[in-house]
Every structure is written in structure tokens, then in C-alpha cells.
Amino acid sequence: MKPNLLIIDDDAATLFGFSHYLSNAGYEIETALSLKEAESKLMVKKLDAVLIDLNLPDGNGMDWIPKIRKMDPDTLIIMITGSGEITTAVEAMRKGADHYLTKPVDLEMLHGFMTKRLELDVLRRKDEAQRRTVRTIEPYFGNSPAVQKVFELAALAADNDTVILIHGETGTGKGVLARWLHDRSKRAAAPFIGVNCASLRGELLSSELFGHVKGAFTSSVNDRQGLIEVANDGTLFLDEISDMDLGVQALLLKAIEEKTYRRLGETKERKSDFRLICATNRDLAEEVKKGKFRSDLYYRVCVFPIRMPALCERSSDIPGLITNLLKAGSPDGIDISEDAVEMLKRYRWPGNIRELKNILERARILSQGQTITSAHFTGLEPSRESEPLAAEKGKIENMERSLIKETLDQCSGDTKKASHILGISRASLYRKLVKIKESA
Description:
By secondary structure, the protein is of the alpha/beta class. The protein is built from 18 helices and 16 strands.
């Protein structure tokens, strides 16, 4: 998108010269011959920069600087005048101008200044936006003994620079834990850079990690930084490292051990002081035996392993996870029935927390803002582990029916005597008889 620039000057020739040069340089130009004309344009359009002459037919441009600044504090304001007096420049800067130029203006120098300043403003706004949108809410992992064990290890590792390997099934929250570790490390103020090694192969992954110079391969038309360079002083998170090609593994090993690397197509060695966290859903020791993972890299990344337990191993965490995931998806809150929670606790969750999140999102949409019930989880297959339990429950119910019938036969249908022998109240016996009749 082109930057929007307003030029205010009462000299038509000056306006033409500025407009011609700067429009060719990539700016969207607006012009005004007076402050009155400029005011109407300031009111209706967002402007990235304003060039304003000191002396105008209907007022002093310097007096307008505070008004422009009030309309938009982020607008770049440059004062232009025929006077080169220091006092005038100081006064313009005091009132809020970002720069002061005297005529005749070097347009090339003006363009260079505006380009750098506007680029810095864009980066600053992006940074502020990111800071405003960063979630201050702690990620919820759970309180089960299995999770507590994870965080005992994670707390020890957070303050150290040792390489961490997080392993566990897909969807268990390995990436969230990696970010948690970074945020509690001494590198928290520096970048957290993540890449999924399964999504890139060979040369593409090498380029992503180490960068490249122009002409290093067919599509490399410009020099490019690698993520290892971007992660300097911060954390590099390599997800699914088991999918990394053997050739890239050799390059990574050198980068880990020596903290040096080369961009593809470059002979110059570069340095990057990064902390490495890796994650995998496979057994790396088995991958080494199969020849798919380098043994020397395995010993280098498996310095401090942390295992993320599967969700089926910690069903007691499911109610808390449900509450937090629903809150994240619906800030205003949405209720879920107890029977639905119990049903979700009995499910095996082969996709772990990621599957739980997706299923809850679908149920939230189906519920249309109402309480989520078990009916909103259509197509959720019962856990394989729950099937034997269901069979056992059926056997017990059959035995109970037979016992009640035999006892009633012995008591000639006397429910009072039968309930006494069975050790239950007559009301309970009546309810069970109704149930037996309905199922017959």
C-alpha cells in the first residue's frame, strides 16, 4: 500500500515539482494551496506524512503543527521554509514537527528520510499491536500428577540454556510448553521463532533455517535471513524434528555445537546465540536405529527430555481444559452440562488437546450460544476402553433382574417381604420393576 502524503504550499510550481518526484517514488499525493484547503483533506483521509510550508496565505504553517499532531499523533510532519534560521527550526520541532528543511529542498534526501522514518513507524505500530494482543492469561495445562511432573522438570529447565526435547503424541501441547519455557527464561524479551520441520524438506528447510544469498539456487532472487539468525539471543523451536532430512541434520549439529552457520551459497561464517527447544511425536532412539536420525544429533538434542502425557492418561484434567478452551473461544462464556463433561471424560482422545479443542468449537457453534449438552457431540465414538465396561454393566443388570424375579417368586409377589430380603426400599424395588418391564 502506498503511503499517503499531503503537501501544503501556496506556490503551484513547488507543488508540481514535489508531487511529480514523490509520486514517482511511490507516494499517494494530495496537495493544498492553503490551510483551509488542507483542513478539509486532513479531516477525510488518513495521512502518513504532511509537508507544510511556513508562510501560507491564510496563516502560519507552524501554528498548524499542533493541530495536525492532535488529529493523528502518528503522522510524520516536515516543516519547509525559505528561512534557514536556527530559532525557526527549534520552534518548529518544539511544536511537534519531526523534521525541518529549507528551500531549495533536496528531494532525494527528503525521500530517503521519509522512507526510513515511515518504515520505523510501521515496525513500531506492529510491535505495539503485538504487545496489546499478547495474551496475559496463563495457558492451562491441568493439575493432574502427570502434568505436575512435567512442570517440575520444566521449571528446572526454564532458567538454563540447555537444549530441551519435548516428546509426546500429536496434539498434547508440546508447542505451548515450548513457548511457556521461553517466556520464563532469561531470553524472554528476545524472539521466539518456531518452524515445523515436517512442512519443509531439503533445500527449502535449509534456506528457512540458515538463509541464503542471491543465486544460491534457482528461486533465490534476493539475500534472505534464516530463522537461526532471527532467533539470535532468543529461542529457536524446531517442531517435529524427527522429519528433518539427514543433510539438514548435519548442518544443524554444527550450528548447535559451535553457534555458527553459513547461509546457503555463502562462505562467510555467521554467529547466532540461540537457545534450542525441539519437539517430536516419535521415538528418536528408534529413528536412530532405522538410520533416519543422526546418532550424534540425537545425543545433542536429547540433553533434557520432557514427556508430555497423552490426554487419556490424565482424564482428571479434562473438566479444567474444557472450561479454559470454551472461555478462550467465547470470552463472554458458555455453559456445558455435567453429562456432557462426563461423556468427554470417558472418550479416549486419540487427537489429544487439539482434538478436544476442535470438538468443543464445533459444539459451541451447534449450541448457538445455549448450554452445550451431550447431544451437541454427534459422531463422537465411545472409547474402546469403555466398551468392556459397558459389557460388564450389562451382565450386572441381567443378574440383578434374575435376582429380583427369583426373590419375588419366593415371596409369592409380596413386594414388602421381597424388598426386605433384597436389602432395598420398596420404592427402589418398584422403580427397578418398572425398568425391567420397560426393557422387556
